[in-house]
Amino acid sequence: MASLYDTFRDYEIDLLEMISEQWGIYDEINWRKEPAKQISNLLANSALFNEIISTLPPSTKNAFQNLLENGGRVARDLYARSFGDVREMGAAIREKNRPDRSPENDTEFLFYHGLIAVAFFENNGETREYYFIPDEFLDFSEAVKGSTAKTDLNPVTEQDLKEITNHPALSMLHMLALQLAILRGKIPQIESEKIISSRPAPFINALLHENQIIENNDPVSTEKLKYILLAEANTLLAELFNTWYRSDRINDLRLVPGLVFEGQWINDPIKPRKAIIDILKQLPSGPYFSFDELVNWIYKAFPDFMRSGGEYDQWFIKESGSDQYLKGFTSWPKVEGAYIRYLITGPLMWFGALSIGHFKDPQKGNFFLKTNLGDLFFDQNPIPIQPKNSSKAIVHKNGEVYIPQNINRETLYHFARFCMWTDKNEKYFKFRLTPDAIRRAAQQKINIVQVKSIIKKYGQEPIPSSVFEALNRWEISGPEILVEAHVIVRFNDANTLQKLTASTIGKIVKEKLNDRTIIISNKDVHKLENILGEAGYLVENRTKYNQ
Question: pTM here?
Answer without folding.
Answer: 0.69
